[in-house]
């Protein structure tokens, strides 16, 4: 799937919880995502919206380290949108 198709696919996915971390800098977007994920059920999806330039590296790394599934990233609302499925 090319990047345009991936962005379109991510834009159609449903999510269970949303976290607006716009304006927060590293490590706050990931720390807030960790806290939100703790209260979610396994298999639920978190939509994380962030403007921190480091999040593009931090979010996938966080998912790898914690076992959550990183479903992808796209641009929307003048920010990056990350989808994370709780392990």
What does this protein structure show overall?
The chain is an alpha+beta fold and 87 residues long. It has a single domain, classed as TusA-like domain (Translation Initiation Factor IF3, 2-Layer Sandwich). It is built from three helices and four strands, in the order H-E-H-E-H-E-E. Strands 1-2-4-3 form a four-stranded mixed β-sheet, sandwiched between helices. The model has no long low-confidence stretch (mean pLDDT 90).
Q: How confident is the prediction overall: mean pLDDT?
A: 90
Secondary structure tally: strands: 4
Number of helices: 3
Task: Specify the CATH architecture.
Answer: 2-Layer Sandwich
Remind me, CATH topology? Answer: Translation Initiation Factor IF3
Regarding CATH, which class? Alpha Beta
Pick out the low-confidence regions.
none
Order of helices and strands: HEHEHEE
Report how far the terminal alpha carbons are from each other: 24 Å
Rg is 12 Å
- In terms of quaternary structure, the protein is single chain
Q: What's the number of structural domains?
A: 1
Shape descriptor reads globular
Main sheet summary? 4 strands, mixed
Q: Summary?
A:
With 87 residues, the chain is of the alpha+beta class. 38% of the residues lie in helices and 30% in strands. The N and C termini lie far apart (24 Å).
Pick out its properties.
Translation Initiation Factor IF3; 4 strands; 3 helices; alpha+beta; four-stranded mixed β-sheet; 38% helix; 30% strand
Outline the secondary-structure elements.
Blueprint: H1 3-12, E1 17-21, H2 28-38, E2 45-50, H3 55-66, E3 69-76, E4 79-85
